[in-house]
Amino acid sequence: MHYATSDLHGYPLKDFRKLLAKAGFTEDDELFVLGDVVDRNGDGGIETLRWMMDQPNIRFILGNHEDLLLQCRFLFDRITKPEKPLLTDEQLLLAASWLRNGAEPTIRSLTDIYCREPKEFDRIMDYLYDAPLYSIRQINGRKYVLVHAGLGHYEPGKHPYEYADEDLLWTRPSLDERWSADETVILGHTPTQYYGAGYRGRMIRTETWIDIDTGAAAGGSPMLLRLEDETPFYADEDDLPEAGE
Length: 245
Hints:
It is a single chain. By secondary structure, the protein is an alpha/beta fold. It is built from 8 helices and 10 strands. It has helices spanning 13-22, 46-53, 64-71, 74-80, 89-100, 104-116, 118-130, 165-169; strands at 2-5, 30-33, 58-60, 134-139, 142-147, 183-187, 204-205, 209-211, 223-226, 231-234. The longest helix is centred in the middle third of the chain and has 13 residues, at 104-116. The radius of gyration is 18 Å and the shape is globular.
C-alpha cells in the first residue's frame, strides 16, 4: 500500500508512529511525507526527521520549511564560530524569514547536533539537499502527483519539473481551482482550516487535488491518506468524514 502525510511540524514521533500503526502501515508499504517535518513545535521535528532517514520505505518530498532551513545553513557556522564575518543583508533577510516561520525549535535542536555530532548534522543536511520536490506514482490506474504545496501558475500539459520551485513549495490553491482531470495532486502546505472552520482537522478532496494538511503546525494532528482507495486516517478521531467539494 501507498500512504501520504504532510506538515508534521514537530508533531511527537511516538504519536505519529501510533497513527501509522492505526492505519496498518508496515515495512512492506510506502509512505510519502510531503514536506514540513521541521519547525513550529517540540524539537522542531528533528527526531522525526532522523527516524525517517533510516526508514527505507519512507519517501521525503521537500517542503518550504526545509527549503528555508537549507537557505539558512550559514547560521550554524555563525552560531558556533562567532568570529565569522557579520551576516550580509541577504542572509539577515533569509534568517528573519525563517524565524518568522517557526524556526526557533529547529535551530536549537540542530545547533546541539552541530556541536556534538557534526557528522550527523552533515547527514541531515545531505538528506534534505537530496530530497525531490515531487514524486509521481501510478496506483490502480490513477496517476498521483505528490508535492508539498501544489502546482502554482498551472498550465495544462506542464510537467512538474517545468514549474519553478516556488510554485511547488509556496502556492495555495483556491477551493475552486482545478488542474488536470487525468491526475490527482496530493498536497499539504495549506492547513485545511484555512478554507473555513468546517474543514478543521479533516482533508479536503476536490475534483483534481486533495489537501492533507490537517493542522499539526497549530497544535492539531496530522493524518494519513491511503492512496489505493483514498481512505483517510486521522490521529484523534475515528471515522471522521472528509470535507466535501
